[in-house]
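S.,

Sequence below, as promised.
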Amino acid sequence: MCLLSWRSGPRKNNFLGKGQAEQVFIYILALLIFALVVGYGYSAIQGFLQQQERISLLSTKQELENAFRQALRSYGDVMVFDEKNPLRAEGLERICVVEGKKDSGGIPAKYSNEPLLADAWNSGGNLVFLIGEGIDSFSVTNITVQNPCFDVVNGKVMNLKLEGKGTSVLVSLP
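The prediction came back faster than expected:
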């Protein structure tokens, strides 16, 4: 008997002691609190980024509306958005300008390959489309369009020219 107890050693309890159970509970609670803080932080950061994107879109829209108004007011006034003076358009892919339908002819070739632009042309309104993940637009008055769409590269439009003609605004490449 003595030999048997020597080999098996002292009897071990398979259950955790009271102190060890409390320690495991504290670790699990700390892990849960950490996960909640990280999850909340991630969702807050995503909300801030979405809000920044909306503010950028509104800023671009306001700047373009002001540029159209300014060009319309004065004959010969030219606003060029190029490398030296780019139009900030973060979050956008393209900006398209549609001169509304003025005659009963067919859809002009410059609008025919874009269904959105063709529909806008058929509606008869002069519209500026800000195209990104979604599409936003605003109405402008008295425009003549030579080039309907302008690409946004690295969050900037660098090839847009607005020229005041007294009663209208000519939209073209610089």
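Residues 61-172 form one domain.

Coffee later?
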